[in-house]
Each structure stands twice: as structure tokens, then as C-alpha cells.
Amino acid sequence: QAALAGEMPARGLHVVITAGPTREPLDPVRYLSNHSSGKMGFALAAAAAELGARVSLISGPVNLPTPAGVERTDVETARQMHEASRRLATECDLFIGCAAVADYRAATAAEHKIKKREGEEGLTLKLVKNPDIIADIARLRDSAGGRPLVVGFAAETRELEAYARDKLERKRLDMIVANDVSTAGLGFGADDNAALLLWRDGEGEGGASLPPQPKSELARAVIERALGCLTSRPV
Ligand code: CTP
Ligand code: CA
Predict the structure, then answer these.
(1) ipTM of the complex in this document
(2) 47 and which of 63, 131, 181, 220 could share a cystine (Cβ 3.0–4.6 Å)?
(3) 41 CB less than 6 Å from ligand 1?
(4) Cβ of 17 less than 6 Å from ligand 1
């Protein structure tokens, strides 16, 4: 019995995870997006479910099967992901923003297909900023009195630790998982990843460097570290 409880440390917890890219329409046949495969977010969902949590996965367009025991909500745009996150995060214990949210969308998506114009060599698109989903959830947490714990990701090509620390502070996160995406074979689209974890909890500030490993193993380490923060943070 005790051994079973030890293997299911997330039992009774509700975890909400965003994953994959978002897709921002330009017109009925075109969109703006990025190369996120969703693998890391789906691995996190699988790991949390294996550790006993109730898991809600909010996914952008990806080509992956839903992990066993996971409740999945599919979205396309950042604004749809934002809405689903707000709805689910108000009643969760742990929110993990793993999605590669498009920072900008077209100011207005054209109602009809944009036609190529004779005599014009270029096309200028007007983009506007999308909402910062995780920063918004972290603000919700502040006003709702201490829940959920909020974990973000940072994909960087340089100055990994400095940019990750800045995001941890600026977005008021409890923990950040920083990836150096300039390393070949790791990160975007790959099956393996390495990460620098930075966190704040009741015991102060911590950090850990996780070496290259399958995303499934990295996911488990991230969930276990987040559970540690949940247990030790001040109420
Ligand atoms: N994120 C989010 N909503 C956005 C943009 C990012 O929730 N509109 C989340 C991501 O899911 C991730 C974290 O914020 O957990 C960091 O994403 P990142 O793109 O690295 O941060 P940005 O603040 O967008 O900074 P930049 O792209 O300029 O590095
Ligand atoms: Ca971004």
C-alpha cells in the first residue's frame, strides 16, 4: 500500500498542460505557425497521468495520439488556447505552459483568399500581439490565493540562463524549463531533450541541469520537480 502511494505521488492533483504550436489564420487557406511537434507537452501529460494525476491537455494542431488517461482539448489559435486555459486552470493545482504560442497574429484575417497582385513586388502583413497565456494564468493565481503552481518553458538559441531567469521573473512563474534549441538533435521535433530547470519554492531558489535524454524521462523529472515545489511552497 505504501509503495503504491509512493509510485502515485500526483494522485488527487489536477494538472493542466498546453502543448504544440498555435496556428494563426491569414486567410481561409493560409496561416502563421512554428515547428513545435507537441512531443514534450504530450510526454509531460503522459508522465503526470502515470504518476496518478488527473490531466487536461490543451493541444494546438499536432500529429500525436492522446496519452492514456488524458483528457484532451484541441485548439488552433492562441486566443482559443487562452480561453481553454482560463477555463481549466481556475480549478487546477499545476499549470504547465509547454505550447509554442505564436507571439503575433494577423490584425485581421482576410475573409477571402488573398490574391497575388500584378505590379506589386511585396506584401506587407499587419500583425498584432497575442495574449501571454502563462503570464495571465500566473496573475489569476495571485488573485485567487495561491493556486495553481505555474511552470513555463523557454526555448532559446543564446544566453539560456539569463533569458530563462528573466522569463521566470517577468511572467511570475514558479518554475521554468529552459531548452537550448540551437543544439542539433535536441528540442523542436526531436525525441530527446536536455534542460536547465530554475525554480522558486518555500525553500528559496533552486536549479538543476538535466542532461540529454528521451523526452519521456525528462518529462518525468520535470513533473517530479514540480510536485516538489507544490509540497514545499508556502501556503
Ligand atoms: N507563452 C504563453 N503565451 C504566449 C507566449 C508564450 O503562454 N503568448 C508561454 C510559453 O508557453 C512558455 C513561455 O511562455 O511557457 C515562454 O515562451 P517564449 O516564447 O520563450 O517567451 P516569450 O515571452 O514569447 O519571449 P520570446 O519569444 O520573445 O523569447
Ligand atoms: Ca514567444
Answers:
(1) 0.99
(2) 220
(3) no
(4) no
Structure confidence by residue, pLDDT tens digits, 100-143: 999 999 999 999 999 999 998 999 999 999 999 999 999 987 77
Nearest ligand to the CA atom of 133: 1
CATH code, domain with 69? 3.40.50.10300
Q: Which residue range(s) make up the domain with 156?
A: 2-106+125-232
pLDDT in tens, 1-36: 455 556 899 999 999 999 999 999 999 999 999 999
Q: Of the listed 34, 63, 179, 193, which one is catalytic? A: 34
4, three cell numbers? 503504491
Ligand 1 binding pocket mutation candidate from 132, 157, 159 (most atoms within 8 A of CB): 132
> 192-217 as b/e, with b when 16 or more CB fall inside 10 Å?
bbbbbbbbbbeeeeeeeebeebebbe
pTM for this predicted structure: 0.95
